[in-house]
Amino acid sequence: MSGTLGNVQTFQATVPLSVQFESSTDSIRMTAVSISGQPVALNLQGLPLPPVIQTSFKADKGLPDGLELMSLIEVNESIVCPDHSQLEYYILHPEPQIVYIPNFVTPEEISHLIEVTKDSFTPASVYRNGVTDVDSGHRKSENAWPPRDEVLQCIEQRARRLQQLDSGLEVEPISVQRYHVDGFFTYHYDQFAAPPNRRNRRSTFNVFLEGDCTGGGTHFPRIPRPTDPNWCQYIDCESTEPGTIFKPIAGAAVFWLNTRDNGTGYDETLHAGMPVKSGRKIGMNIWFWKDFRKYFDSAKDVNTQ
């Protein structure tokens, strides 16, 4: 143990950690939160969740319609990467587990990712009913996919090892997002509204690469804001919005689990990219998938014995 953040213990531990994380790409579970095409912040405290667009899954691969050809990647554990076994982290919420990692990526990695993607950004799309399209009423940002070079593979490996106790994870191709003034991503889930006995996004790493802006935080309206004032260096303690807003601080990552061990999703992971008021924000999403069909197959075998 290396110290405390107020009442919150901080740790420096050797991988594997008993920490798990969760997130998304162009395939998401959207909630409609706009009026006349303009995003609005909803006060969701004590209210039922907004309706979620359902997706249908093919029986063969267990992937949503329109994403059957998406490649899930097995993390390269053989590549030799810089040692990040002593990452400091703070647990903000126990279930669903939400963890803040102040220095998840290095300044050199950030510079590399921004450089290799600077000329390849295109308007970001949203996924609904098996179709991806651009809808600036729900999402106003740009996406780029960096080449899977050694830098990216080492980031994948680092994220995977932080979830070492979670078996059978594969990673979605990593995407970088760029938000200019008025850019946002309204309230949504990274996991799909799918039957639990399918593949789904198990966890998310929401990584901040550049945060030279006002606004642009990641908002979890259903996660209570911690009362310890020491958290205010990482979260917006002056906001009047319900829940917790993580500040876009370059190098930091927010990790969370999207689904339980049995494949059902956490309603509490509803989140949004808040509008950028000035400047620019660049982020990166790392989504890990898990095939929950194996869980159901093994449970069926046990029940029939």
Automatic annotation (TrEMBL):
SMART domains: P4Hc. Keywords: Dioxygenase, Iron, Metal-binding, Oxidoreductase. The keyword Iron-sulfur does not apply. Gene3D superfamilies: q2cbj1_9rhob like domain. One of its GO terms (cellular component) is endoplasmic reticulum. Pfam families: 2OG-FeII_Oxy_3. Coiled coil: none annotated. Residues 170-290 form the Fe2OG dioxygenase domain. One of its GO terms (molecular function) is iron ion binding. This is Fe2OG dioxygenase domain-containing protein. It comes from Coccidioides posadasii (strain RMSCC 757 / Silveira). The lineage of its organism: Eukaryota, Fungi, Dikarya, Ascomycota, Pezizomycotina.
